[in-house]
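We store chain and fold; example below:
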Amino acid sequence: MPYGQPYGRPPQQQTPHGPGPQTPYPPHPQQPPPAQPGLGPGYGPGYGYTPHPPALRPGIIPLRPLALGDLLDGTIKLIRSNPKAVLGLSAVAALLAAIPLAVGQAFMLDSVGGALADPESAAAAEQELSSMYGVIGQYGPTLISYVVQFVVVTLLTGVLTRILGRAVFGGNLTAGEAWGLVKGRMPALFGVVGLMAVIMLVPLLVFALLMFAIAASASADSVGMVIGLTLLFIVAYFAYYLFFRTRFAFASSVVVLEGRGPLDAMRRSWHLVTGDFWRVLGILLLTSLLVGLVAGLLTVPFTLAGTMFGMFGAGALSTTIVSAVLIAIGGTLGAMLTYPFEAGVAGLLYADRRMRSEAFDLVLQTAAIEQQRQGWVHASADELWHPSNSARP
């Protein structure tokens, strides 16, 4: 950068003086900035003051500790810089998870609509729904949807995290390239998600067994006790869920970017969150709220239309199909936005915590300067995420 040229301003065209290297010079000396109002002369920035240079930003984020705006802006830039891979994969994953659920809801709405249209058949419809086949037809698609969602969202998280890891340096990966880099980490990634599912399900199973024991006693006070314990459990479980969801928020990113195993990745995530728990929790909650509102605006119209078709067009196969299609479209649109945005914020928040606790921004800046000198982003940039490259372990 030329001497005397302030940071952040493009160099002006100057006329070189004398032989030798053509070094531009300013046409006249810089004037000192005016003193700040109310401070009098001699206060404020002195003569020749230049602001700090902006942080390097070769990719979707500046290479410094990130504010909330940087996290949201970086996630949007991740989607915009590679929409085919990010949104395309998210749409496929969302559609696969939404189809079984939409089919189950459409057939249930058809049964409800038939009962409303013919009240005399309501008892028969209720008996059918309570039968074994009715229970399977009602809850089977939901269970299938959750299983499919477990698989495809885990795969999607790994691929999106690898794309994000390269996008920090300004590089792009296709879906095929990202899959080739991340497929070896899938067993560990499924291990993390499976352990998280166990942690979240254990309290629910314990509570279900407790309620079953209370109901079996058939005492007069059992109803009031069940209601009171249920309300208390909801509050306690919500706090339990938020605590462990926050503590292990970075485990998937650690598995993909650092190459650790499931248990080691969960310990690593716990360590990174320590010291900044409430900030991480607040950002994750705010992200879920924002994404939920936007996804709801996209989902609700299709869900309402599908519900109307299913209930008021009961008995016709065509209306059931239309209802299932509308509900599936609504679920796909909502999840297509939710999946990449939540994965992007979690991945960038992981990078932010490493910058704050391990001075990782110095490592990223050094690598970015070298890549700018070479003029391209080398695949070896992925290796920089390994913890051995931290400036302060």
In short: The chain has one domain: 68-368.
